[in-house]
Automatic annotation (TrEMBL):
Keywords recorded for this protein, A-Z: Carbohydrate metabolism, Lyase
Functional pathway: Cell wall biogenesis; Amino-sugar metabolism; 1,6-anhydro-N-acetylmuramate degradation; Amino-sugar metabolism; N-acetylmuramate degradation
Active site: 94, 125
SIS domain sequence ranges: 66-229
Record carries keyword Transcription regulation: no
Known catalytic reactions: N-acetyl-D-muramate 6-phosphate + H2O = N-acetyl-D-glucosamine 6-phosphate + (R)-lactate
Alphabetized GO MF terms: carbohydrate derivative binding; carbon-oxygen lyase activity; ether hydrolase activity
The protein's name in its UniProt record: N-acetylmuramic acid 6-phosphate etherase
Misc. remarks from the entry: A lyase-type mechanism (elimination/hydration) is suggested for the cleavage of the lactyl ether bond of MurNAc 6-phosphate, with the formation of an alpha,beta-unsaturated aldehyde intermediate with (E)-stereochemistry, followed by the syn addition of water to give product.
One of the GO BP terms on file: amino sugar catabolic process
Source organism of the structure: Streptomyces sparsogenes DSM 40356
Gene3D superfamilies the UniProt entry points to: 1.10.8.1080, Glucose-6-phosphate isomerase like protein, domain 1
Amino acid sequence: MTSAADQEQLRAQLDTLTTEAFRPELAEIDRLATLEIARVMNGEDAAVPAAVATQLPRIAAAIDGIAERMARGGRLVYAGAGTAGRLGVLDASECPPTFNTAPGQVVGLIAGGPAAMVTSAEGAEDSKELAAADLDALGVGPDDSVVGISASGRTPYAVGAVEHARRLGALTVGLSCNTGSALAAAAEHGIEVVVGPELLTGSTRLKAGTAQKIVLNMISTITMIKLGKTYGNLMVDVRASNEKLRARSRRIVSLATGAPDPQIEAALAASDGETKHAILAILGQVDAATAARLLSESDGHLRAALEAAQG
């Protein structure tokens, strides 16, 4: 239980945050027609990409550092509480089917554990010690990258994760939506996407959440591009774990090679359904075993393997 003095200090801190600011001009939004509220909300969301654009150099620098470490076997770890934590877990969970990442290669930590994804555990956000314990349980080290996510930039769990990760020698990124945040200051790479006050005062699942999702999309997607998980704009490492993804895999091989369907089916069958291997086998005119060897020697980069096959 926090004291009255602690509560007053926290309130004063929140009063300084852009994401918590009250907007008098929206004080009677509940009296507007549904369509008008939707128009106002849509107009608010339209400002988010411009706010992200101001941080692109910082985002790119962070991605280069993350990709460098992941190329030598490191992991990408997101850490946050509440909405921020859920967005990190979401982004991490989408990497295996999209990019065929290994289990544990991209990890989402949320204050309060997996149950906090569906049941509020907002009190867990107040513990820096919990964040340190969660990172220690993963065995985070110098080859890893830890991205702390917090709209306010003050959430103890996110700040604690970044501070502890930095002590462990990991690359650290602090993603927040306020300037001069403790999270950005604690991280090697501070990213502050200032989207302004929310439509509903303090509801950072809105513009701030949208901004965080955009940045996390960039971090994971561009990192995977740098790691050779794509060929052009094709997801050649897609994991064909269901009928839709198997159809997508065949379509990707077709787009990459222009080969007839029988040749595509034969290449996929010979390569045990591995999209990237099938493409290399067709374009490089090599068998499945040779395609696997060339991709291994090129650290999974299809363009480099294709050059080796053609050379």
